[in-house]
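ARCHIVE CARD
Drawer: 12
Card no.: 0347
Subject: one protein chain, sequence and derived structure
Cross-reference: see card 0346
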Amino acid sequence: MIALVCSQPEEGQERWTLQLLADKLVQLQIVESISRETVRQVLEHNELKPWLNKQWCIPPKSNAEFVCQMEEVLSVYIRPYDERRPQVCLDEMVDFARFIRDLVDVYYPMAEKLVLVMDNLNTHTLAALYEVFAPAQARRLIEKLELHYTPKHGSWLNMAEIEFSVLTRQCLDRRIGSRTELEREVAAWQAKRNEQAVGINWRFTTTDARIKLKHLYPSIAD
């Protein structure tokens, strides 16, 4: 295991993760089965932590706008799945208007409404649709949307940001020599990610926020 973790990770991966190591050990028939926790304990005993990457973001204190938007997004995440109103998280993109058209007409044509969670950027506005499409087309698309914006300093509330963070840690946090190599590495990572059907088990709720992030809520005088 120590030799494996010190070797080059698989194509599409920037570093070894606990799950990748566990899967590889089984694939190489070194063990019949092994848990991520066992891998972690062995590596920690040898002071090896290839998966570790420290990041943090400090949100503002006592900010009513922040907590208002935060609770709005959290209220969306606890909704039960409804195929008529699928939830989609978006990050920055080159062509916001045309991507929205594809979501509505190609990916979710049967949906009554698309519930979108996105960062509050000046490029993520409904006005962008009028800059690209005829008024009737723009209005038709807008009528299919329900928008929710994350607060400033709150990109961690966007599940799309979480997925891109995983992509960065596992695949992109290294030197990649060309665009062709970049596309190949990302495609390999994406294929493996989709094959594993990896999801996000979101557990942070409004109740949690009001306790753990109490310092962000304005003090209300009696």
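Annotation on reverse: The chain has a mean pLDDT of 84. The longest helix spans residues 179-195.
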